[in-house]
Amino acid sequence: MTTRFRKFGKAMANFIDAIKVDLSFIKSHSLQPKWYKILKIFFLLGFLMGYYLLFEMKATILFFVTFIFLMIVVHLTYRIKTKKWTTSWLDFVIIEENNEHRTQRIGKFYYSAVIFNALLSFIISQVLT
Q: What gap in Å lies between CA 31 and CA 96, rounded to an integer?
């Protein structure tokens, strides 16, 4: 039992470290303007409120859970393919200037995935409720 607990503890420590890496990247990246990073939270909350008023709680929860799951898949795909935000992939572009790395704004592939995931979440939430 102790070995399992140690493995679980190590896995949790790795998971927490991964979250710290991602949070650090989110705070520092220039892929989106800083105002947009904050505004999108309020946009999502407003959208969910409207969704709730139109389609009730069950459909809203199903939409939200589906959308978050699909966006986690997108996030993890980008994280893996960019080797923890250090390598260019698709519309995630790393530019090296004066031995420093910076990122360009993300574009058509990422936002296409967001739109696709929102539409898929909408369809799933409507069909299953």
A: 15
